[in-house]
Amino acid sequence: MLSPILVVAALVASSLSKVYESVADLPGNLTYDFVIGGNAGLVVANRLTEDPKFSVLVLEAGLSNVEVIDAIVPFFASNLYGTNIYDWNYTTTPQPGLNNRTAGYPRARILGGCSSHNGMFYTRGTAEDWDRYANLTHDDNWSWDNILPYFLKNERWSPPADHHNTKGQFNPSVHSTHGMTSNYLACSRSISITTLANRWLQSTVGDGMRSSSATSYLADKFARRNNFHVLLHAQVSDLVDLNKTNGKPSFDGVRFSQGTSQFTAKARKEIILSAGSVGTPSILMHSGIGDREILGPLGISTVLHLPSVGQNVSDQPMFITSWAVKLNETMDSVAENVTRFNEAFAQWNISHTGPLASFGTRRPGRVPPHIEIFFAPEGSFGLELGETGHFVTVGMIIVSPRSRGSVMINSTSPFDPPLIDPGLLQDDFDISALREAIKRTQQFFSSPVWQDTVIGPILDLENIATAVLNDIIRNETSPGLHMVGSASMSARDATWGVVNPDLLVKGVDGLRIIDASVLPRVPSAHTQAAVYAVAERGADLIKQRWT
Ligand SMILES: *[C@@H]1O[C@H](CO)[C@@H](O)[C@H](O)[C@H]1NC(C)=O
Ligand SMILES: *[C@@H]1O[C@H](CO)[C@@H](O)[C@H](O)[C@H]1NC(C)=O
Ligand SMILES: *[C@@H]1O[C@H](CO)[C@@H](O)[C@H](O)[C@H]1NC(C)=O
Ligand SMILES: *[C@@H]1O[C@H](CO)[C@@H](O)[C@H](O)[C@H]1NC(C)=O
Ligand SMILES: *[C@@H]1O[C@H](CO)[C@@H](O)[C@H](O)[C@H]1NC(C)=O
Ligand SMILES: *[C@@H]1O[C@H](CO)[C@@H](O)[C@H](O)[C@H]1NC(C)=O
Ligand SMILES: *[C@@H]1O[C@H](CO)[C@@H](O)[C@H](O)[C@H]1NC(C)=O
Ligand SMILES: *[C@@H]1O[C@H](CO)[C@@H](O)[C@H](O)[C@H]1NC(C)=O
Ligand SMILES: *[C@@H]1O[C@H](CO)[C@@H](O)[C@H](O)[C@H]1NC(C)=O
Ligand SMILES: *[C@@H]1O[C@H](CO)[C@@H](O)[C@H](O)[C@H]1NC(C)=O
Ligand SMILES: *[C@@H]1O[C@H](CO)[C@@H](O)[C@H](O)[C@H]1NC(C)=O
Ligand SMILES: CC(=O)N[C@H]1CO[C@H](CO)[C@@H](O)[C@@H]1O
Question: Where is the Glucose-methanol-choline oxidoreductase N-terminal domain (predicted)?
Answer without folding.
Answer: 276-290
